[in-house]
Queue: 3 jobs
Job 1
Amino acid sequence: MSQSLTQTRYTISEVEARTGLTQHTLRWYERIGLMPHVDRSHSGQRRFTDKDLGWLAFVGKLRATGMSVADMVRYAELVREGEHTVDERRALLEHTRREVRARLAELTDALGVLDRKIEMYAMNTNTGKAQS
Amino acid sequence: MSQSLTQTRYTISEVEARTGLTQHTLRWYERIGLMPHVDRSHSGQRRFTDKDLGWLAFVGKLRATGMSVADMVRYAELVREGEHTVDERRALLEHTRREVRARLAELTDALGVLDRKIEMYAMNTNTGKAQS
DNA sequence: TACTTGCTTGGAGTGCACTCCAGGGTTTTA
DNA sequence: TAAAACCCTGGAGTGCACTCCAAGCAAGTA
């Protein structure tokens, strides 16, 4: 079960470069409980691990689904609480999935409207017919 | 070119019921220039037409694309300015379309991550194996 | 050692898209 | 006609997700 003793540790600016999240946002994520507690150097500076980077990548995907920060924090809390929360975690993710599917349908529909409108403008350019 | 003389006119609460937009939002849309000027009764109350409803439906589609209110206002201004703005209108819509396509790709990717995570939780429920 | 750059904190500020309020006039119903 | 319901305006307030600030400590370089 033992890990490599030379585990890579990243400063906050390295994590900023790798994730695209600002230092402000990274500190804020930790403050609101969206990060598992991050290691510190002897002087108190954050030292992120590859595991932290993995978590941030997953959080990025959750953000991309449109999940609210409050729900992401709830999910992070459940992870910290341990194995007995897997049912609630799955329920949260399934709820998010339903919302993503609805959003995809809505977005696809709106894309169709956009396509038709753009097509009308293209015709308009050729014929000079009026429209809004 | 003449229209029916008995054109249906809707009060703000009727439009609220039909569109799902609140009265506050409808007034705000008008204030910021997102509506063509709405008719008024002799006493100054708004009287929306079917054309207004059509515009609101289109605006709803633009909202669904994720277009900002500022860009929707810009689009509404261009419509008011007349036919010579069709190129800029089309450019605005094409820009929005590119963003919608990017968002669809991002959302589809995030959905895949969600699917895999949920599947892992389903397995976990059966096997008792640990994970985050 | 001096200087520059980087990191720390709690708290304040920002931009967006609404959302609501106060105070008053209008329209409909009993 | 009186009460209830509806609508008006300018401006203030809200919730979200950051984003920035001040003041100070720490680390790396000439």
Note: Residues 11-13, 23, 27, 31, 43-46 of chain A lie near DNA strand C (CB under 10 Å from a C1').
Job 2
Amino acid sequence: MRGTKNMNGSCNEEEFDQLKRGPWTLEEDNLLIRYITCHGEGRWNSLAKSAGLKRTGKSCRLRWLNYLKPDTKRGNLTPQEQLLILELHSKWGNRWSKIAQHLPGRTDNEIKNYWRTRVQKQARHLKIDCSSKRFVEALQRFWMPRLLEKVEQTSSSSSASTASTSTMETDQNKLIPYSQSEQTLFAVSSPTKLTNQGSLNSNSSIRASDSSGKILPQLPEMPQLYGNSAFYDSSVQNNDCYNVDIGGFDMMGLSQQDDMSSLNFQMTDTDWISSGDMAADTYWNMDGLW
DNA sequence: AAAACTCGCAACCGCTAGCTC
DNA sequence: TGAGCTAGCGGTTGCGAGTTT
């Protein structure tokens, strides 16, 4: 069986017992980097041997992909990246590698860790299952708008002119999860761009609000965010995940509701979504998220 | 000051799809 | 066709660092 002594292909029992585990040393890292620089990736088991590493091929591959590869990004995820993760996870679930493909420089492991340590922590805090409809709804109504706000803050501070070029009519702070005609993930829409299929009525539109229920400042038009940023791979634009059919939200049982206010989550304990309590910082603490 | 606890992340494990022979 | 092997994925674990008691 894989994962046992037999998983290593040509590795016999004695070799297996001599294999090193645990944290990589600087020397091992250098060996691996040097070898891959000269010979390239692939054939990980033989690579491990040829490089003189007492590691499994699997371990070498992981170390390279998650840590040593030159274009690997380190450090905190940006709000843009977090937003994208939330969005893509709502569509694909725990398909970490697939999600990672859309965040250049980030690894599936990193994204998985982010989800488990940050997002699931919020779910625990709210005492709900992070895979539940309620939690997805919470993400959409509170977390994502705040991330968008954060994105706006960072983009306006780094490029004031870019942020101010959004001339779209945003008389309502409507956030639609997807725009069918534009390949965006999340956009502040003008009313004319809302389709019957994807629109949310104004009484129930997802709004960015602070804990007191105030409507937050208008949010930027998202196509700029995704269209211009380095992490948005233009090659992805024709991917079905962007050319969406609102399917990303169908899975959450929301899109078929023209009026979100009609959603009934049958909450018997605390109706924290509709009451607005959830938006209170005591329940939805964003401070630790970035 | 130190023990207990929590958190974040690197690394490992088990499984499986796909390829080769 | 099926056995063996490789690469890759998602889940889990272990450990060091930081925080709380």
Note: Chain A has a mean pLDDT of 58.
Job 3
Amino acid sequence: MLSLDQIVRDPEKFRTALVRRGEDPPIDRILELDSRRKALIQLADADRAHRNAVSKAIGDEKRKPTLEEISEMREVGDRIKSVEADLAAVLADLNETLLPLPNTPLADVPDGLNEESNEVIHTSDGPTESHGNAHWDVAPALGILDLEAGAGISGARFFVMKGKGAKLQRALAAWMLDVHTNEHGYTEIDPPLLVRSETMQGSGNLPKFRENLYHDDETDLWLVPTAEVALNALHQGKIIDPDMLPLKYVAQTPSFRKEHAAGGRDVRGIKRVHQFEKVEMFRYVEPQDSEAGLEEMLAEASTLCERLGLTYRVLKLCAGDIGFQSAKTYDIEVWSPGSAEWLEVSSISTCTDFQTRRNNTRYRPETGASTRLPHTLNGSGLALPRIWIAVIENGLQPDGSIVIPEEVVPYTGWERIEVP
RNA sequence: GGAGGGGUGGCAGAGCGGUUGAAUGCGCUUGUCUUGAAAACAAGUAUGUCCGUAAGGGCAUCGCAGGUUCGAAUCCUGUCCCCUCCGCCA
């Protein structure tokens, strides 16, 4: 959520920032609601101050209230109730107006309203040829992926990994977690996958992206579309002690997405599915450290691609293409020689104080100082079925077998997936 | 699923209708003392919001939401969460 206070102080700054994202923000309405809000607070506070004074006097003097006092205070009480009702309506209105507004892009985020304006800022060395053997042909032939079985069990966009395919995915995830925990200083988290509405709202997924989420009506719980949702809620309503920041968390979880918006795109294979594994990095940092932290996370995700021997490139997303809660995002894409395209395997964002304001996570810079909102950063490190695809397609040998990247061999226990 | 107990400040823990933002202890900050530290002593130490240039003042908050009352941390209702025992169960 954007800061009401800051919007009121500099409405034009927010208007232009949101227009960059292609929004038409109701700034004037917000300003009007805020001034009504302040006026109502003053009315109610004045009445309450009066009532408190009278009640205190009665208490101090240890006497019964007079009939005049009782009738006057009843009147005051009624008036307070009616002003409070008005105020509640204004607050609800304000909330509904602010919640659907996305974060404002940072100054260095490129202009542009769609992915065509994204900037490729780095392309690694490595081959970008195509051999035309896509994973949806190669993997089923090797007996490590069963798309029909997935469809039979659960429907379109579900899949079954088998044998060395399943083991490869598990090995990749374990390796990534180990790199992040052992080399990058992250603490491993295993969070709940079903979360409350409040938690979903805190990350920015609700109320706006309801149609992309799985929900259980009976318990009113939501399946997480990414571990970010849970990691972001780890300190909700809490004040983080001085010297605790930065907090660096990593989690491997499934992600559940309805993918309604994808329509008929990426229907073949397992590039876009309803349930997939992902290793997610998440940081809570002091505001002044968030831009440097973002660069570090980009490096941490990039190094994984490099160590797997994959050709990858880094995109700086334009203002119109960054996610709802993001102020700046890098995407990492790896080359898929089978389908001859770049596959997005990581999206790394700073959400500034947008999420911590929503779920009331604060920190104290030092003992005795007043609280501030930390910034949150999130990034995939990395998204699994897609990295699995890249490993399979890049490891494909002339004889049809797959050679596994050296780094993960200690985790698989073997170096090659042979033709059966 | 059944029966009971409980949610109070950074932590522990009082208060159960009269002003209480809340005793007390611990922790923390500052000061005195000390060569320094510890101990001791003294003072201070919640969050949010509104008015105000500021100093300062008002209001709200004792899980959450309502209700009763001149007045609610205290009484009533609902709800969420935690704990204990029984049952069930991976």
Note: Residues 115-417 of chain A form a domain with the BirA Bifunctional Protein; domain 2 fold (CATH 3.30.930.10).
